[in-house]
Task: structure prediction
Amino acid sequence: MIINKEILQIGNPILRKIATEISDIDNPQIQTLIDDLILITKKNYGVGIAAPQIGKSCRLMIIASYPNIRYPDAPLMQPMAMINPRIINHSEEVVEAMEGCLSVKQKRGRVTRYRDITVEYLTRNGDYQRKEYNNFVARIIQHELDHLNGILFVDHVQDELINSEV
Result:
């Protein structure tokens, strides 16, 4: 277990790399990475995290929405791994909301995202999924998918970043 694994911060070049696809989902290192990312997310009151944020440049992200100190109104869902995810469709409608990031400590900013998205991905068991996600969960997925493409939420912020205690 690597619960104390450091989350990389803005300025680290790994956060700007396009992550590589995962070909061997059954690899014990990938399965351990999934478990570690879930623990790191919860420990830091996050609702998602991508592997590049802990220095692993592979196309793996965790979505773990739950009400917490950072997002008290977040919907409750079980943490899930998305391997090699890609958005295959999205709504015309966009929604602007405040976002933060575990890799940009104590900063938040307004970001516009698609309200609804359809995502293809593999589960930690290698099962193919094609699902539609909406609202807050769709926002998390888009935010984490950006990490896999070397993009940070600050790249989308139209106004100034604001300081935040959480």
Notes: The beta strands are 48-50, 60-63, 80-90, 94-101, 104-114, 116-122, 128-134, 162-163. The CA atoms of residues 59 and 135 lie 23 Å apart.
